[in-house]
Specification:
Layout: E1 3-5, E2 22-24, H1 28-40, E3 47-49, H2 52-56, E4 67-69, E5 79-82, E6 95-97, H3 103-110, H4 120-130, H5 136-142, H6 144-150
Parallel strand pairs: 2-3, 2-4, 4-5, 5-6
Antiparallel strand pairs: 1-6
Helix pairs in contact: 1-3, 3-4
């Protein structure tokens, strides 16, 4: 059984004057987490994309006030949302940790009263993709969410950085 800790959503929006960013994984679940958190808290929240291994090895600059989602727990975060068994926290925290198909589903439930749009289908698709609960037909390209999640890149960071330039040294 999972554990839920935390402030009510209305108290988690940063009223205390601290800096807040979203720190999440650059996969489909992480992108949906960022979308939901921005809608629920502040559309202007900056996003820091991070990989789980970098988080585990202390290479991610998590700051007081940050919301960490779909990544291992960090002691400096303000809130944490995750669903991975291997990331079980050792101390109480604000946010949600449960065994679930996706972290986005946890955020969706936590902030349900603050979300203006119906994200039900997006959450169903995110749960299916992150839990690898897909039919052969869906994997063959008959799922719009699966098609988007696997199109062209495994990371939204690829769309925000300049292309790598090759030099003569790279050949050979």
């Amino acid at each position: 059984m999972g554990r839920i800790h935390g402030l009510p959503p209305e108290n988690a929006a940063g009223d205390g004057g601290f800096h807040m960013r979203i720190v999440t994984r650059p996969d489909f679940d992480g992108v949906v987490c960022a979308v939901l958190l921005r809608e629920a808290i502040d559309k202007a929240l900056p996003i820091l994309w991070a990989e789980p291994g970098d988080m585990q090895h202390g290479r991610v600059d998590v700051q007081d006030g940050d919301i960490v989602a779909n990544l291992p727990f960090h002691d400096r975060c303000r809130m944490w949302f995750d669903h991975h068994y291997s990331n079980t926290p050792a101390r109480p925290f604000e946010g949600v940790f449960e065994m679930a198909p996706s972290a986005a589903g946890l955020i969706h439930r936590y902030y349900a009263d603050r979300l203006q749009r119906d994200h039900g289908e997006l959450i169903r698709q995110t749960d299916k993709i992150d839990a690898a609960d897909l039919s052969e037909d869906e994997v063959q390209g008959n799922s719009p969410a699966y098609a988007w999640a696997t199109a062209g890149s495994d990371s939204p960071r690829a769309f925000s950085r300049p292309p790598r330039r090759c030099s003569a040294r790279d050949k050979g």
